[in-house]
Write a structure and sequence with these properties.
The complex is a heterodimer of chains A (337) and B (385).
Chain A (H helix, E strand, L loop, with lengths): L2 H36 L6 H18 L7 H28 L8 H24 L5 E2 L19 H8 L6 H23 L1 H11 L1 H6 L4 H27 L1 E2 L5 H14 L4 H19 L1 H8 L14 H13 L14
Antiparallel strand pairs in A: 1-2
Helix pairs in contact in A: 1-6, 1-9, 1-10, 1-11, 2-3, 2-4, 2-9, 2-10, 3-9, 6-7, 6-9, 7-9, 10-11, 10-13, 11-13
Chain B lengths: L1 H17 L4 E9 L6 H24 L2 E9 L4 H13 L3 E6 L3 H11 L5 E4 L6 H4 L5 E3 L4 H15 L4 E6 L3 H16 L3 E7 L7 H10 L3 E5 L2 H13 L6 E3 L7 H6 L7 E5 L10 H12 L5 H23 L7 H10 L1 E5 L2 E4 L9 E9 L2 E10 L5
Parallel strand pairs in B: 1-2, 1-3, 3-4, 4-5, 6-7, 6-8, 8-9, 9-10
Antiparallel strand pairs in B: 10-13, 11-12, 13-14
Helix pairs in contact in B: 2-12, 3-4, 6-7, 12-13
The chains are: A mainly alpha (337), B alpha/beta (385).
C-alpha cells in the first residue's frame, strides 16, 4: 500500500486517539482530584460520569423539538450534567466516605465499589421506568457534520485537515474545545483562587490546614463538587462522541481513565491529562495493529485486532509502574520524620 | 375475545345437544405470554387460536370437539419444561405448537418425547433443536446454519461485493454466524479484507479507520442490533456508506432509532419471521386477526397460524387413517413428520427425517431511511434431506 493512503490512516488513528484521550483526561481529573485531597480512589466516579451522560441525554431529548440554537442546547446539557453529577458526588462523599474517614484505606474503597453498583442499578431503574435501556443521543443538527464539509467556506484548520485527509466532525472539535476550556477553568480555580489555595492546603496536610482556620470538610466537599462536575462534563462529551450510553457503559471508560490518572501520576492534574491523551492514542494504535501486521508481514501482529485495544493501556501502565512507580508526572511521597 | 367465547359456547351447546359421543381433542401452545417477550409470544398464541377457530367445524364434522390450551413459558426454559410435563399428563392433548425461544424448545421437546407428543415450532432457529433427531420435534422456519450462507449469497449475488469486511460480537451467536458467512464467501473467491471480533459497545473508531483504509464493498456483522447500531452510526459519521449486512439479530425496530434516521440506510439483514406483506396469502389472515384480537398481526402470528394448521391437518389425517377414531399421539407424530401441507401462508410445508422444513425461506430486509422493507426472499434447504 502506498504512503499516500497509509499516512492519512495513521494520522487519522492518532487524531481519533487524541480526541478519545480528551474524554479520558477529563474523567481522569475527577479521580485525581479526589485522590490528591483524600488519598481515596473514588471508584464510584465512573457512575458519576455516566450519570452526567444520562442527564445530557435527557436534556437533548427534552429539547429535541425546540428550535433553540444547538450550542445553547449543549450549554444547557453541560450545566445540568455538571450540577447533577457534582451534587451527586458531594452526596456520595457525605453519606458513604465521610463516616468512614480514619478507618483503614480498604474500607472506603469497598464502599466506593458498593456505591458504584447502587448507582448503576438506580440509573437502570429510572430509565427502565420509561422503557429505555440504550439511550441514543439526538444531537442538534450540524453537530455530526464534517468539519469544513463545504468547499467554499473553510477555516484554515479545516483546509489543512482536508489536505492531510483526516476525518473530524464538528462534534469532535466541540469536544476538544469544551475539554480545553474545562481544563483552563480547573487550572485557574486550583492555582489562582483562594478556594484552590485552601484545597491545596488541605491536600498537603489536613490537620495543619484546619489549625490555620480552613474548614477541611467544606474543602473536601468542594473538591468532590468540582470532581463530580468534571465527571458530568465528560459524560456529556462521551455521549456526544459515541452517540449511545446505558447505565452500565461507565465501567470501561472509567477504569481506563483511572489507569490514565495513575499513569500520569495520581494526584497530578497535568499528569491526568497526559495519561488520558496517551492512553487514547495507544488504544487506537493497538486497535489497528493487525493492519500493520498485514502490511509488514508479521503474522503475529496481524492477529492483534480491535478486541485487544483495551489491553494496550494496561500493558503500558504496568511497564510505567515498573520503571517509574510514581507515574509520569507524579512526585514521590517522601515521608518526613 | 368475546366472539371466540361466544362461538365456543355455541359449539359446546351444540355438542351437548347433538351427540353425547363427541370426544374432545385438545392442542396446546407454549409461548411467552408474560414478561419482556410477551408481545411475540402472544402473537403466536393468537395465530394458533385463529387456526383452531378455522378448523373447529372440520373437527366437528369428524365427530370431535376441538380445543386450544395455551401455556405461558415466560421465555424461561424451566417454566416451559414444567408446562410441557403438564401437557404430557393431559391425555386429550394430541399436539403442541411452540415455542418462541430455542432455549425453551430444546428441554420442552425432550420432556414431551417419551409420550410421543409432537411439537411444531413456529420460530426456533438453533441448529440443536432438530439436530438431536427427536421424533417429535419439527419446525417450519429456517435453521441458523442456513442463515450464514444465505447472507453470503446475498452479498455476492445482490450486492455484487468482491471484498468484504467481516465482524462479529464474540458471542456464540455472532461468532458462529460470521464464521459461516466467511466460509461461504471464501469458497466463492470473495476477498475477506478483514475479519475480527469485538465486544466493544461504544468506541468503534479503530475498526472504522481500518474499514476506511481497506475499502470493502460490503461489511458483514454477526451480532445484535444494540451493538451494530452504534457501529453503523459511527461508520456513517465517518462518511462510509458501504452496505452493512447482518443476521436476525438486527431484526428490531430499535435499530433505526440507534443509528439515527440520517444513517439508517443501506442496511440489510436476513430473518426467519417474514413481514406480513411478504406472505402472499396473508391479507385475509391479517384482517381476521385484527378483527378477532383487535391488534395487528405480525410475522410470528402468521407463523403460529401456519404451525397450528400443520398440526390440525395432521391430526385430522391421522384420525382418518385410524378409521375416524381419535388417533394415538404416536400416530399423530408420525403422520405430521410424513405429511405435506399446502396452502399455508408461508407456502408448502414438509419435513425431512429430523423435522426440519424441507424448503424454508429466509427473508432479506432492507433498511432505508429508517424504514424496514422486504428486499428479497431466499429459499434455503436444511443440511439433511
Amino acid at each position: 500500500m502506498e504512503l499516500s493512503v497509509l499516512l492519512p490512516f495513521i494520522v487519522n488513528v492518532i487524531v481519533g486517539g487524541l480526541i478519545l484521550g480528551f474524554v479520558y483526561a477529563i474523567i481522569a481529573l475527577g479521580y485525581t482530584m479526589v485522590y490528591g485531597v483524600l488519598q481515596l480512589i473514588n471508584f464510584a466516579h465512573s457512575e458519576v460520569f455516566i450519570t452526567g451522560a444520562v442527564v445530557g441525554f435527557e436534556v437533548f431529548r427534552i429539547l429535541q423539538d425546540s428550535t433553540m440554537n444547538g450550542y445553547l442546547k449543549l450549554l444547557i446539557a453541560l450545566i445540568a450534567a455538571m450540577l447533577v453529577s457534582g451534587l451527586l458526588n458531594v452526596l456520595i462523599e457525605r453519606l458513604a466516605y465521610r463516616p468512614l474517614r480514619g478507618s483503614p484505606r480498604l474500607v472506603p474503597l469497598i464502599t466506593a465499589i458498593g456505591v458504584s453498583l447502587i448507582l448503576q442499578d438506580t440509573l437502570r431503574f429510572l430509565e427502565g421506568l420509561q422503557g429505555r435501556f440504550d439511550l441514543t443521543y439526538t444531537l442538534p443538527a450540524g453537530f455530526g457534520d464534517k468539519f469544513c464539509s463545504t468547499n467554499s467556506t473553510c477555516a484554515p484548520v479545516g483546509d489543512f485537515l482536508r489536505t492531510i485527509g483526516v476525518d473530524v466532525q464538528l462534534k469532535d472539535v466541540i469536544l476538544v474545545v469544551v475539554s480545553l476550556v474545562s481544563l483552563a477553568v480547573l487550572n485557574y480555580v486550583v492555582n489562582r483562587t483562594r478556594l484552590g489555595k485552601a484545597i491545596r492546603a488541605v491536600s498537603q496536610d489536613r490537620v495543619t490546614a484546619g489549625l490555620m482556620g480552613i474548614d477541611s470538610n467544606l474543602m473536601i466537599s468542594a473538591t468532590f463538587l468540582i470532581g463530580g462536575a468534571l465527571g458530568g462534563v465528560s459524560g456529556v462529551l462521551f455521549g456526544l462522541k459515541f452517540g449511545t450510553v446505558n447505565a452500565y457503559s461507565g465501567f470501561d471508560p472509567g477504569i481506563i481513565a483511572f489507569t490514565a490518572a495513575v499513569l500520569g501520576g495520581i494526584g497530578s492534574i497535568p499528569g491526568a491529562v497526559l495519561g488520558g491523551l496517551l492512553l487514547g492514542v495507544i488504544q487506537n494504535l493497538i486497535g489497528v495493529m493487525n493492519i500493520f501486521g498485514n502490511l509488514l508481514g508479521f503474522a503475529n501482529l496481524s492477529t492483534i485486532d480491535a478486541s485487544y485495544s483495551k489491553i494496550g493501556p494496561f500493558i503500558v501502565l504496568v511497564l510505567i509502574l515498573i520503571f517509574k512507580p510514581t507515574g509520569l508526572l507524579g512526585k514521590s511521597n517522601v515521608e518526613k520524620v | 375475545m368475546k366472539k371466540t367465547a361466544l362461538s365456543l359456547s355455541v359449539l359446546a351447546a351444540m355438542a351437548l345437544g347433538t351427540a353425547s359421543a363427541q370426544t374432545t381433542i385438545k392442542i396446546a401452545s407454549i409461548s411467552p405470554l408474560s414478561g419482556g417477550q410477551s408481545n411475540l409470544g402472544t402473537q403466536i398464541r393468537n395465530g394458533v387460536q385463529l387456526a383452531v377457530n378455522e378448523y373447529a367445524p372440520l373437527f366437528k364434522k369428524a365427530g370431535f370437539n376441538l380445543q386450544l390450551v395455551p401455556y405461558d413459558d415466560q421465555a424461561d426454559p424451566a417454566t416451559g419444561t414444567a408446562a410441557a410435563r403438564k401437557i404430557a399428563s393431559d391425555r386429550a392433548i394430541l399436539a403442541v405448537v411452540g415455542t418462541l425461544n430455542s432455549g425453551v424448545a430444546i428441554p420442552a421437546s425432550a420432556a414431551l418425547a417419551p409420550s410421543n407428543l409432537v411439537m411444531i415450532s413456529p420460530a426456533n432457529t438453533a441448529n440443536q433443536v432438530t439436530d438431536r433427531g427427536l421424533a417429535n420435534m419439527n419446525r417450519i422456519v429456517a435453521r441458523d446454519d442456513s442463515q450464514g450462507p444465505a447472507g453470503a449469497n446475498f452479498i455476492m449475488n445482490n450486492l455484487k461485493a468482491k471484498k468484504v469486511y467481516v465482524l462479529n460480537d464474540k458471542t456464540a451467536y455472532g461468532e458462529g454466524l460470521a464464521a459461516e458467512v466467511e466460509k461461504a464467501l471464501k469458497a466463492k473467491g470473495v476477498t475477506i479484507s478483514g475479519s475480527e471480533g469485538t465486544e466493544e459497545k461504544s468506541d468503534f473508531s479503530s475498526i472504522v479507520a481500518k474499514i476506511k483504509l481497506t475499502r470493502p464493498d460490503a461489511i458483514y456483522f454477526g451480532g445484535i442490533y444494540n451493538q451494530i447500531g452504534v457501529f453503523i452510526k459511527q461508520l456513517r459519521g465517518a462518511g462510509i456508506d458501504t452496505p452493512v449486512v447482518g443476521g436476525d439479530g438486527l431484526d428490531s425496530s430499535e435499530l433505526p432509532v440507534i443509528v439515527g434516521k440520517a444513517g439508517a440506510n443501506n442496511i440489510y439483514y436476513t430473518t426467519v419471521a417474514a413481514p406480513l406483506e411478504a406472505l402472499p396469502a396473508a391479507k385475509t389472515f391479517a384482517t381476521s386477526f385484527q378483527k378477532t384480537f383487535n391488534t395487528p398481526a405480525q410475522g410470528f402470528g402468521a407463523f403460529g397460524y401456519d404451525a397450528a394448521k400443520v398440526t390440525l391437518q395432521g391430526i385430522l389425517d391421522a384420525a382418518r387413517a385410524n378409521g375416524g377414531k381419535v388417533p394415538s399421539r404416536k400416530q399423530v407424530q408420525d403422520t405430521i413428520r410424513k405429511g405435506t401441507y399446502k396452502g399455508l401462508l408461508s407456502g408448502e410445508v414438509s419435513f425431512n427425517s429430523v423435522g426440519d422444513r424441507k424448503a424454508a425461506t429466509l427473508y432479506v430486509i432492507k433498511v432505508k431511511d429508517g424504514k424496514a422493507d422486504l428486499e428479497t426472499s431466499l429459499p434455503v434447504k436444511p443440511p439433511k434431506n
